[in-house]
Amino acid sequence: MDINFRQGNPLEITSDCLIVGIFEGEEFSSGLLNEANQAFDNSLEDLNSQGELVGKTGNSTLIHTLGKSSPIRLLFVGLGKRDAMTEKAVTEVLGASFRKARSIGASIVAIAVDTFCTEEIKAERIVELVTLSAINGLYRYEDHISEKSDKAISEVLIIMEIPAEVNVSSYTAIADAINLARDLANAPANHMTPTILAGVAEREAQENNLGFELIDEDKMKEFGMGSLLGVAQGSIEPAYMIVMKYEGDKDNPNDSIALIGKGITFDSGGLSLKPPIGMTTMKGDMAGGAAVIGALTAIAKLNLNINVYGIVAATENMPGGQAQRPGDVVTAMNGTTIEVLNTDAEGRLVLADALCYANHLGVNKIVDVATLTGAIRTALGDEIIGAFGNNDELIQNVIDAGSKEGERLWELPADESFAKNFKSDVADIKNVAGAAGGATIGAMVIGKFAEDTPWVHLDIAAVSRTNSVNGNNVKGATGTPVKTLVSLCRSLAK
Questions:
Q1: Hey, what domains does the chain have and what are their CATH numbers?
Q2: Which of 262, 264, 395, 479 could form a disulfide with 181 if both were Cys (CB 3.0 to 4.6 A apart)?
Q3: pTM (global) more than 0.85
Q4: Is 283 a catalytic residue?
């Protein structure tokens, strides 16, 4: 899909469909709707009196112009009250509008940018949201469907009275990274094994001039990564530690951050077997790793002035004949011993060695991303990411980075008062505690391996997938939190 700028009157620029925003209570006061009404001999006011062509949020009206203006169709979409408009609302309207335009067979779709602007949301930001919505809102995963949809938008025209200084390519890179993460997390587990995931990461590294290293099981043994290897031993699929490296500040090696992703390409629960219904979405248990791989590709394209490692601990968690048993004790790379009481709490085990390896590399900040606990949905619902950490400044940086890009994060406690809950009688720590504070306990087990490095853990278990269509999210993997990770690195690079 091409995204291009045009300057001029949107009603005089040829397109298959022109999308126009209208505010509630301002429908015919001025602007394009008023101008279109005149072209239609004031007949559009009749539709307004009948309850159509109103600016109420969620309302949309499609008009066939029949030669009365250059666009073949006009799609008027309600934005609600001007003073109540938010970026989230704009995104929801744009995503739905692009899908509507595609559904009617439009190939060239134009956006009248100025009709979406408010005092708070300027044209430059609308253009960024249009770019994300055009790419992410139209996303489809059809890799395994025989009869693929033949309707597609080939070009988006961004029409503005005064061209804004917006680098569309930067948001194209972010949107493409989100869709890459979605592709990886949507892929069936037999089509996204650790080996295949490693291959995708290597391909993306080569295409984006990133450093790449693959740590196989033999190298893991040399490093002493017993915690990751313990999870992997139940599967016939080999495990890998995937390492991507972006060097944007080569003269300052201390200016570095590790983005670490949980890469469980299928999670059966191991011998602590999940019920069948609990396994149906477990192909997406590597959504954190997918987000990290996607984020590294965008960071490379944005040429940020910072050094970033992307580390993904990739394996399956299976109940094979050699699978680890409840009660087994494993030793992580830093020498910490862990009693494995529940093999389905495997994410914290693989991330333990990933954080150890990040410290081995000498990074000075760590952010890990994982579909870690069901408890996070109980705590925060299905639209907010749980954030935990050991450094107030970095936690706030991450939360602010997400807020800037429309991904909501909320800090939950991770203080030492919880540590007594996962103290083991037979090892240094155990991988689970009681039912209380489940999301915090999971985060704090991981945090043990950050040691003194500033660290933030993002639990995305509740937000990594959706069963509904809303805004730029369609059914399946969401690609969360690619935007947060890129935004964080952008702010740190400045």
A1: 2-166 (3.40.220.10), 171-493 (3.40.630.10)
A2: 479
A3: yes
A4: no
